[in-house]
Amino acid sequence: MSRPEIAPGEPYSLRLNKLREEMTRRKLDGYLIQQRMDQYWATGFTGEDGAALITHRAVVLLTDGRFDQAANIEAPYARKVLRKKRTPDETIRELKRCRLRRVGFNPDHMTVAEYGVLKKLAPPVRLVPVENMVTALRAVKDAGEVERIRQAIRVAERAFEKVRQWLRPGLTEREIAAQLAYEMQKLGAQGETFPAIVAVGPGSALPHYEPGDRKLVENEILLVDWGARVSWYGSDLTRVLWLGSIPPRLKEVFDIVREAHDRAIKAVRPGIKAKAVDQVARDFIQRAGYGKEFNHGLGHGLGLVAHESPRVSRVSRDVLQPGMVITIEPGIYLPGVGGVRLEDDVLVTETGYELLSSLLVQFS
Amino acid sequence: MSRPEIAPGEPYSLRLNKLREEMTRRKLDGYLIQQRMDQYWATGFTGEDGAALITHRAVVLLTDGRFDQAANIEAPYARKVLRKKRTPDETIRELKRCRLRRVGFNPDHMTVAEYGVLKKLAPPVRLVPVENMVTALRAVKDAGEVERIRQAIRVAERAFEKVRQWLRPGLTEREIAAQLAYEMQKLGAQGETFPAIVAVGPGSALPHYEPGDRKLVENEILLVDWGARVSWYGSDLTRVLWLGSIPPRLKEVFDIVREAHDRAIKAVRPGIKAKAVDQVARDFIQRAGYGKEFNHGLGHGLGLVAHESPRVSRVSRDVLQPGMVITIEPGIYLPGVGGVRLEDDVLVTETGYELLSSLLVQFS
Question: Is residue A129 less than 8 Å (CB to CB) from chain B?
Answer without folding.
Answer: yes
